[in-house]
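#struct-pred
JK: can someone run the complex with zinc ion? inputs below
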Amino acid sequence: MNRLYCPFCGARELEEFRFHKTLAEPAANAYEEVYARTNRPAVSVEHWQHILGCRAWLLVRRNPSADTVLEVRLVAGGDGHLPSEESPHDRA
Ligand SMILES: [Zn+2]
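RT: done, structure tokens with the ligand placed:
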């Protein structure tokens, strides 16, 4: 994966983005979540931010084994904050 598609800016080099974290895919049941995990999942769901561009947060679904991007969705844009993030300055 050398490039990532930003919904605002188009396809950009990966160096323009910052990886934030991998989100856990919900398991079908508790047994699978605890005992049937794989080290190389077929689908990885990740948060990326376009830090050298529009600063939009992206939800990227990709296959790490095949190194292919399956889907890119916009999570938030412009203000540089995820909707679930709350900074101490937001509290009044
Ligand atoms: Zn962008």
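RT: quick notes.
The beta strands are 3-6, 10-13, 18-23, 44-49, 57-63, 68-76.
The pocket of zinc ion is lined by residues 6, 8-9, 50, 53-54, 56 (CB under 6 Å).
JK: thanks, will look after standup
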